[in-house]
Write a structure and sequence with these properties.
elongated, 264 residues
């Protein structure tokens, strides 16, 4: 009985902490939507954050997208060669990249690069009391720090996803052209024959949700960081892990919905 009571207490405390965390996250998201439509609108800071999220991620997105397209084409070729269907490669790669790989690869890169950066930046501002100083100075830190960053990721990640898809198709073309000497125009004509408006719309929609999730998770973890410098590292790590987990959950849900619409 003596050993069971501490265990029951720990279980009860963990459950309470879980629901308290869910409530804090719910209120955090609700506050975002409340503050997002109130003045002042910090357009300059939003543009600055779009630059931080977008342009500074282009080299990594370019390299990863190009390699993804080339490797995926190289891995798919032997399977199609068995059936003598290597001419289907452009269509196969285009469908795979536009429907899934482009947006997912971009989201995972942004979750690792941007999510951790936002979590660490806001976490360090929290533990060094810079956020408290902004509140004393009559500046709304939530509006200036959180809303601008979430809007920036929501706007920029879809653009990066489309760019990543295009670069991945270029990587695929390099591989296909090296084996079959297919022209650039012919490759993209065959590739886009299989792409529908629903595929592009679904990819952009997923990327919007991914960008919002990455920005929101990074800001939430950083804005609520504690325990000094150790808390900053913990916030950055949790921002990456949780945002990647939520990205996969959203991917499954949105794919199921899009497939239901496609076959309805």
């Amino acid at each position: 009985m003596i050993d069971q009571q501490p265990k029951q207490f720990l279980v009860s405390k963990n459950v309470d902490d879980y629901f308290i965390g869910v409530n804090k996250a719910y209120r955090f998201i609700g506050r975002f939507f409340k503050e997002a439509f109130k003045t002042p609108f910090h357009f300059r800071e939003i543009i600055n954050q779009c630059f931080e999220v977008g342009l500074k991620s282009l080299p990594l997105i370019t390299l990863t997208g190009f390699i993804t397209g080339m490797v995926f084409t190289k891995q798919s070729r032997p399977s199609l060669e068995v059936f003598g269907a290597t001419s289907w490669l452009p269509s196969l790669i285009s469908i795979a990249i536009v429907r899934a790989l482009g947006s997912l690869v971009t989201a995972l890169i942004c979750a690792g690069k941007i999510g951790s950066s936002i979590g660490a930046e806001l976490g360090s501002m929290r533990v060094t009391e810079q956020i408290d100083a902004m509140e004393v100075s009559a500046i709304n830190p939530f509006k200036y720090l959180v809303v601008t960053r979430v809007l920036a990721t929501t706007i920029t990640v879809p653009v990066l996803a489309l760019y990543c898809s295009f670069v991945a198709l270029l990587g695929s073309y390099v591989n296909v052209n090296g084996h079959e000497a297919v022209s650039f125009i012919s490759f993209f004509e065959h590739g886009f024959e299989s792409i529908t408006f629903l595929d592009v719309f679904t990819s952009v929609t997923k990327s919007i949700f991914f960008g919002f999730t990455i920005g929101m998770v990074g800001c939430y973890k950083g804005f609520n960081a504690s325990q000094g410098t150790q808390g900053v590292g913990k916030a950055a790590n949790q921002a990456v892990v949780l945002s990647m987990f939520l990205v996969f959950i959203e991917e499954v849900v949105i794919v199921q919905v899009s497939n239901w619409i496609r076959y309805f």
